[in-house]
Design brief:
homodimer; about 350 residues; alpha/beta; 15 helices; globular; two-stranded antiparallel sheet
Chain lengths: ~350, ~350
């Protein structure tokens, strides 16, 4: 079975475009005529909201399917409307797959043991039912959170191997406060890390001076930002999921808004595919995103959501074009993004085509 | 409006029981007769699985409603079956609330900006629709993940204040690999942390010896396990959500399986309510869980899932009692857990009743 990383890279080659489009539907941003159409059909219900999201997504998918390799629906916006919203998510994913797009679900799930397995089974694997195992969401890949350690990641690694799927683990996220936990300087290496950890006992903190005989003797003590440690875990966890093209199906989320950190992480995780959100509305540009790519021109898929989906509106919510042409505007924005990225990759000699 | 923390504490007083029951339905663990009943009604479909989960949960809720203060449904097990599963989750939550139980949703959500807001709106707040704002899941509290920093927590804090709801932030989780990211020794305090962070530049790691002039001069450098830093954030984030009884509605998840860490965290976060999973099947006992309580006898709600829900079965999946009496067995297990906890709290002079 072809690995997710190979499927992703083949799709990127076929379309000569390493980008994907986020599908983050918001009630407020839906075209008026579409909202009205769904209201007439389903009343003022969550079912109508969900139908509106689905119809909107289908039109976007029709418009961009020949341009980009994947869609990245953000589960939060669907599940906010309960079961009808989740159903619209599932139908969106099915529609995208039917039209030869990969589906990268942005869900940032993270739990432990059997619970992590339930998430993995439901989203990329198979769940138990009367006739053995059956797919539920069946997306191609999903984003996951590393805070609980490997217990939370293991089922995704196993399902990725078994079903040719993938996962992207949060390493350095694109948001302003990502540094609070991710950038903290940590003691990455120490000749006796367990001894160092034991020293805390029931104390929550120790002055470095109280650790002098442990730390001073240790010329090998290495300090690093916390995301470096997460990166080393992800690199390690993904080792068993390498595809024939050399990249692992266990990727990393690395925000296009932090190019310096992206360059560091790129060197640390040469075989890890990066999902790079933050291009567009969040402030990342193509040059920033280019830091996520390897010198072979692969290793990253750049994502943009609002700037593509809502290209028909300006920042104040006014319409730039007739709202019925939201899909045409999205297609133009997706093409512009592709050209922007490819041109920057060409300039830095990283374009494979 | 009464804060979530006050509602929780009042309920704990009324029932003289600081424990809650996890509702983690698994297809394999459902009683045969119930599975068969649902199969006959809905065929071999996910709707039938969802109906089975709901009927099972309702019977458990009927059995334990006078004993415990809250249920903690784990969303993973429901969403694994798509929209029907999510619907069963919603109906379970509604049924529990109608029977005077608080609902603490275990979902461990974590995202950024508008996406985090969509999660919060959908689960504890209100979402936009035609007639203004409307509740969707409307649970009392939800578990959330801190890896993305305050961007991911802010909407939950705001909705908690606005709607009398709450959130429990993962700090030290109950699972074996929780230490991988949570226990790492970090530099918690340094006279110039920004300068220290800048020194990394485009390097991913530095030997302590290369930082000698920065670190050696700094007698104030303080080292701590990573969960201590998360704890200080949670304490800070929850400050605005204090109820009249002194505790914040922004709580912390602290596993009952790590009593030493729990004691440390208890001292660091005196006003934070702990949700303590891990009692029962995961190996935590009442004495371990007692470490999560303050000397006033409050400050923690202990959770058990499998040991209560599936008390009718032994470890090998054989039935201990007729499977039709699974609810009776669950009630007995919930009472035993209550007595176990209260007795240990009494022994350590921490029992408020």
């Amino acid at each position: 079975m072809k690995s997710f990383s190979d499927r992703l890279m083949d799709a990127i080659d076929a379309k000569e475009n390493p980008s994907c489009v986020g599908l983050d539907p918001r009630f407020d941003s839906m075209p008026q005529y579409l909202r009205e159409q769904c209201r007439r059909k389903y009343g003022e219900t969550f079912e109508a909201v969900a139908e509106c999201f689905l119809e909107f997504n289908k039109a976007i998918i029709d418009a961009i399917r020949d341009e980009v390799v994947a869609v990245k629906p953000q589960m939060a916006f669907y599940e906010a409307y309960g079961a009808p919203g989740v159903n619209a998510f599932k139908e969106t994913a099915d529609y995208a797959k039917k039209h030869d797009l990969l589906v990268i679900e942005d869900a940032k799930r993270g739990d432990i043991g059997e619970t992590a397995k339930a998430y993995s089974d439901g989203h990329i694997g198979k769940v138990k039912s009367w006739r053995g195992m059956k797919e539920c969401f069946d997306v191609d890949a999903i984003t996951v959170n590393p805070y609980l350690g490997f217990d939370g990641i293991k089922p995704f690694v196993e399902d990725s191997m078994q079903y040719g799927k993938g996962a992207f683990v949060l390493v350095k996220t694109s948001n302003p406060s990502s540094g609070q936990l991710q950038d903290t300087p940590i003691i990455l290496e120490h000749p006796s890390l367990p001894e160092l950890q034991r020293r805390f006992g029931d104390q929550s903190r120790l002055r470095l001076s109280e650790l002098k005989e442990l730390i001073d003797a240790a010329d090998e003590t290495v300090i690093a930002p916390n995301y470096v440690r997460t990166a080393s875990f992800v690199d390690d966890w993904g080792e068993v999921c390498r595809g024939v093209r050399g990249y692992s199906s266990i990727g990393a989320v690395v925000g296009a808004t932090y190019p310096e950190e992206a360059r560091t992480l790129r060197k640390l995780m040469p075989s890890t595919y990066f999902l790079a959100p933050g291009y567009g509305v969040q402030g990342g540009n193509a040059a920033d995103a280019a830091a996520c790519f390897n010198t072979d021109g692969y290793g990253a898929i750049v994502s943009s959501s609002r700037a593509i989906m809502y290209a028909y509106r300006d920042e104040t919510g006014g319409n730039i074009c007739p709202e019925e042409e939201f899909d045409v505007a999205a297609k133009a924005a997706a093409i512009a993004m592709k050209e922007d990225l490819v041109s920057v990759l060409r300039q830095s000699d990283k374009c494979p085509w």
